[in-house]
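Researcher: I'm comparing several assemblies side by side, and this is the next one on my list. It has 227 residues spread over two chains. Same procedure as the others: predict the full complex and return the structure.
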Amino acid sequence: NAGVTQTPKFRILKIGQSMTLQCAQDMNHNYMYWYRQDPGMGLKLIYYSVGAGITDKGEVPNGYNVSRSTTEDFPLRLELAAPSQTSVYFCASSYLGRISEAFFGQGTRLTVV
Amino acid sequence: EDKVVQSPLSLVVHEGDTVTLNCSYEVTNFRSLLWYKQEKKAPTFLFMLTSSGIEKKSGRLSSILDKKELFSILNITATQTGDSAVYLCAVFREGGGSQGNLIFGKGTKLSVKP
C-alpha cells in the first residue's frame, strides 16, 4: 500500500551540482505531476505527464527536466542547481478516467548553497 | 487562463470558533473540486466534490459545492489548535497546457489560538 514514494526526503546541493528526485507510484495512475512549494507559498506546477512517454511543461519548468519511461516512475532532474531552486518538491499522481483525488508523495526538501 | 481563488488568504480564530473557507473557480471542462489540508508536510486529502448541493461531512469538517455559482466552502466547527494548517482547494479539469489538468488555489492559512 505504498501510494506515491519520493526520495530523498532531504538534500543539500552545491551551486552547479545536479541531482535527480525520484518519484514512483504503484496505483497504475496515468497522470503524474511535479510541484514546488516555496515557504509560505502555494504549489507551482513544474512538469506533468499524462502517461508513459508523454510529458508537458507546467508553469515553472526552467532548470528542470523530466522523463516518463514507465507508468510507475516520474523522475525530476535538476541540472546546474541554483539557489532559486531551494524549495520543497512534491510529486503527485492521479487517474484519468475515474474521478478521484490526487495522491501526494511526502516531499523532498532541497537546499542549494 | 483558468483559475482557482481562495479567500481569505489567512485567518486567525480562537478554539471553539466556527470558520468558513471559500474557494471560487473559473475553469473550463470542470470535473471535480478537491480540498486538502497541509501541515508543514504533504497535503492530505479531505473531500472531493462533483455534484452541486451535496454536503460532504467528516467529523467537524464539511464542504459543499455550488456548480452554478462556481464556488465551494469548507466549514470547520468547534475549531481546535490541531486544525491550524493551510487548506488548499484544487479543481480537476479536462485539458492541459502549462496549467495541467489539476489547478490549485494559493491556500488559506488557518491559525487556531488556544
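Model: For your comparison table: Residues 16 and 78 of chain B are 4 Å apart (CA to CA).
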